[in-house]
Each structure stands twice: as C-alpha cells, then as structure tokens.
Amino acid sequence: MSSNVGMSSCCLSGSVHNGTPSGRVEKVGELDTYIAEPESKSKAKTIIFLVDIFGFEFNNTRLLADNYAKQGFYVYVPDILKGDPLPISFLNNVEPPLKDQEQAGLIDKAKNTAIVAGTLGTWLPKHTEATVKPIIDDFIKHVRSVPGTSKIGTIGFCFGGRYAILTAHDGPTSVDAAYACHPSLVAIPGDFDPVTKPLSLAVGTKDSLLDDKSNDQIKDILDKKSSPTELVKYEDQIHGFALRSDWSSDKDKKAMDDAEKQGVAWFNKYLS
Q1: What are the strands, taking DSSP E only, across the chain?
Q2: What does residue 226 show for φ and ψ, rounded to 5 degrees?
Q3: CA nearest 203: which of 181, 175, 170, 218?
Q4: How far is the C-alpha of 197 from the C-alpha of 170, rounded, in Å?
Q5: Cα 162 to the center of its chain, rounded Å
Q6: Which of 24, 213, 237, 272 has the highest CB neighbour number within 10 Å of its CB?
Q7: pLDDT > 90 in the chain, percent
Q8: Please, are residues 50 and 77 in contact by the beta-carbon 8 Å criterion?
Q9: In angstroms, rounded to a whole number, what is the distance separating the alpha carbons of residues 78 and 23?
C-alpha cells in the first residue's frame, strides 16, 4: 500500500531572492511560459521546470532557471497552475527559518497550522493530479515537437517535485532524466516503484514532509532500480531549501547552491 506524504506550512515558507530575471515570457503550446535560453540558443538539452505552489512568476524560480540556462540548458518554466498560484505574501508570515522554528511556542505553531488548513484546504482540490498531470503531459508532448529539441529533463520543487518523479515513469510523456527537490504529496512506494528513467532527489534532513524514515524507504526502492538514481540529503535543511533558502545564512545558501550543482551535474550526464 502506498502512503502519501502531505503538505504543511513548510510549503509556504522561505525567502524571496533579489535579482532581475533575464528571460522572456511567451505562449508555449497552451501555457504562458518563462523561457531562459543558453548563449548558444541550442535546444539539444532542454529542461522543464515544474513549479511549486507559488507558480511560474515567482522570482526565485526564474532566477534559478536563468542559472541553468547559463550552464547550457534551454529552460522552460510553464504556468502549470494556469494563473492560480498562492500569493508570495505567505512566504513572510508562515514557517520561519529553522532557528526560529525551534524557538516557536505552541501558539505560533497552532497559528501556522490554522493558516495552512485555511489556505491549502481550498487550493489543493483545484490542483489535483487529475487536473495537473494532463497539463504537464500536454506540455511535454508539445516541447518534444519543437524543432531542435533532443533530450528533455524535468526539475520539480515541492508541489512540482512529485510531478517530476511521475515523468520518470515509463510512458508516452516520460522524459530522459528527472530531478525532484523536496517533493511533497508523494506516495511511497506508489510513486517510486514505476520509475524507469534516471531520477535524482534532493532532500533536507529537517524536512517535516519527508523524514529520514520516508527518505530511507525511497532510497531502498530506488537502489533496486536498473536505471540510474540518487538521493542526496542536505543536513539541517527544511522543506523548500533548494528554491527558497535564506541567503543571509551561509549554510543555507551553500545548500541551495549545492542542490543546483547536483541538478546541473545530473542533467549534463543524462541529457548529453
């Protein structure tokens, strides 16, 4: 039986990063999409970003897409939420950094729980797998048909992390390699048993959604695969660290940078 690992206030946490994205937005298939091109303009190594609940306009996501483009990848960030992300304001009032979490009282924790229940309780039913997966499948099909496109990878964060894992299953819309950072709402073993494509995972040891027991279960499943897999743990990192780390913390900034390097190395190996 599969067990689902849910979504909590961690999914609404993190920091907004400064910087001006250098890509552009245009319609790709049926979706508004942020595009970050490599200097060569080559689509030979294409990556599709599958966003978290803050959507494709989130500054952190676009800046990270730009970073991957600088490494030679052609990057698409499609609006898989179709104009219905959660507001960025939640980053500032829900789920503080780890050091503040450890000092939080019961009242603060109860407040966070209530905010999450009120927010996600109405949002998640509008973005179920039955709704989101066909959107992603159609986008992958469209990108496959774009002239010059060779191999395709997916990278997903939190909400989008699970869908990156699903694209590593065998099927007409599977990709050549996938990378999931702190995925939420995963089913263990259900989402991992069908994996047949190269899959990399980045998880934090302080992630309230994927504890060590869950990660060890996932690793045991992946270690039995004939396809390449890896699960990398980042010490003292909470949910969302690979996209929303607090850059004022050297340790957290390094973890985010290392998670980016993990993805770049994975895609260089399996999209080449």
Answers
A1: 3-4, 24-28, 31-36, 45-50, 74-78, 151-157, 177-181, 187-188, 199-204, 229-234
A2: -80, -25
A3: 181
A4: 7
A5: 8
A6: 237
A7: 74
A8: no
A9: 13
Domains of the chain in start order, with CATH, are 3-270 (3.40.50.1820)
pLDDT tens-digit series, residues 219-243: 999 999 999 999 999 999 988 899 9
* 5: CB partners within 8 A, 6+ apart: 184, 185, 186, 187, 188, 209, 210, 214
Q: How far is CA 104 from CA 19, 107, 108, 112, 160, in A?
A: 31, 8, 6, 11, 29
Query: What pLDDT score does 100 carry?
Result: 55
Cis peptide before 189 (omega within 30 of 0): yes
The Cβ of residue 113 has, within 10 Å, a number of other Cβ atoms equal to 13
Distance, CA of 108 to chain centre: 27
pTM: 0.89
What type of residue sits at position 87? P
Q: CA-CA distances (angstroms) from residue 85 to 34, 66, 127, 159, 163?
A: 15, 21, 10, 11, 16
Alpha carbon distance 27, 71 (integer Å): 24
Q: Looking up tokens 């089913």, which residue turns up?
A: 187
> pLDDT digit string (tens) for 36-58?
999 999 999 999 999 999 999 99
Enter the tokens of residue 234.
């980042």
